[in-house]
Amino acid sequence: MEDCGDFIQWLGPDMSMKILACLEDPSDFVRVGAVSSSWRQYVIENGFCKRLCLEMFPEVSSIADAIEGDKNTIDTVEVEVDESVKLARLERDHRVYAFLSRGLSPFLKKDCILEAICASSTDNYPEESIRNTLVPNDMVGRSASYWSSKGASDPAVPETLTYELAAKFCVITEIHVQPFQAYFQFGFPIYSAKAVRFRLGHPKQPMELERNRTDEFGGVKEPFSDKFVWTYTSPEFPMAQDKKLQKFKLPKAVLCVGGILQLELLGRVQRQEMDGLFYICVAHVQVVGRPLLPAFDAEILDQSGKCILKYYPEEKHPGSPSKSGEEHSSRQSCFHRFTSRIRRSWDQAILNTVISAGAAFEDNNEAA
Questions:
Q1: What are the pLDDT digits (tens) for 73-128?
Q2: What is the pLDDT of residues 33-62, one digit of tens each?
Q3: Geometric angle at alpha carbon 35, from 32 and 36, rounded to 5°
């Protein structure tokens, strides 16, 4: 570095901050820290990895602290008087958020539902249970597979389906819902809702989710939805009266902290000829996004959603760097891409500074 110079020392901390803040790939900050000990210290002390996570997903702001390993407690504020402890905590946060930012991107499309929790009502339990919505087809053998609400004379009566996601941290991009077509009824009616809305959140307090919360008639034993705090509510999406899997893309990807998803089925369109009541029936539900790596977990602290991010380094990271010959041969191209991004960031920061300086010069001339 003596031959090529150190731009952090040349430009000073403010300009260096603007240049490095232009980087958008989390791996770049790991590479920056590998350049020299001074660069690594600069990246760690300024928390660039955490900044990047916050830019990607503002929901990360709900993380009150981060811990590694199987610790059950966190350091108190008082111990941070010791500078060595401060540095150790900054280094820990750098590692944890570096892996977290990698775990948040890129998106891998997969079904993020782990288990069905409960439905607001069920017509014939367990034959028409919410668990049937986890099956991709509307038939299992020769039997129909779907969830059905209880009948209602008022078509405005809503219903909810609540699910547990595959991880307490999940990035959600789309939710798919397939209404059920009753091929065994005259006219093959489709029991879709008028509209659908989605809510993401977490339990109000640490709890072991119970699966069988319905009575023998399919009614919810207690107001189970009251046990959750919803931190995100989507816009309302109209549903088509079509038996196809309908895809609802969220306005932007959302990080669900807590691992709970609820579908709100708003309004009914199909009356059953047999009893004259309105029903909603769903054949399949799918959540598209990405659950974080198994190395991450979250402990919800209070109803506001504040949580502790837990990182377990001993857990194997799928897709983590290997020492294969193919990866070794690609290191040089990765380095070139990294230096190109640094150069572009440098050029953009200098250009912005020049433009600002020029504008200030013109203002001074006009004032004179």
A1: 444 444 445 777 888 888 888 888 888 877 665 555 678 999 999 999 999 999 99
A2: 777 788 888 888 888 888 888 888 888 888
A3: 115
Half-sphere exposure of 97 (CA within 13 A, CB side): 28
| 230 vs 218: CA distance, rounded Å | 24
Residue 141, helix vs strand vs coil: coil
Please tell me the distance from the alpha carbon of residue 368 to that of residue 365, in angstroms, as a whole number: 5
Is residue 16 classed as helix, strand or coil in its secondary structure?
helix
Cβ–Cβ under 8 Å, residues 240 and 191:
no
- Per DSSP bridges, beta strands 307-311 and 63-68 are parallel
Identify the three-state secondary structure at position 368.
coil
Dump strand ranges (E) for the chain.
Answer: 63-68, 113-119, 139-140, 143-144, 147-148, 159-165, 169-179, 193-203, 228-233, 237-238, 246-257, 260-268, 270-271, 278-279, 281-291, 296-300, 307-311
Contact between residue 243 and residue 179 where contact means Cβ atoms under 8 Å apart: yes
- Please report, for the chain, the start and end positions of each structural domain, with discontinuous segments joined by +: 7-104+301-321+328-352, 113-291
* Cβ atoms of 113 and 119 closer than 8 Å: no
Q: Where are the beta strands (DSSP E) in 69-168?
A: 113-119, 139-140, 143-144, 147-148, 159-165
Identify the architecture of domain 113-291 in CATH: Sandwich (2.60)
Distances (CA, A) of 193 to 95, 154, 235, 243: 46, 13, 15, 11
Residue 52 near residue 100 (C-beta atoms within 8 A): no
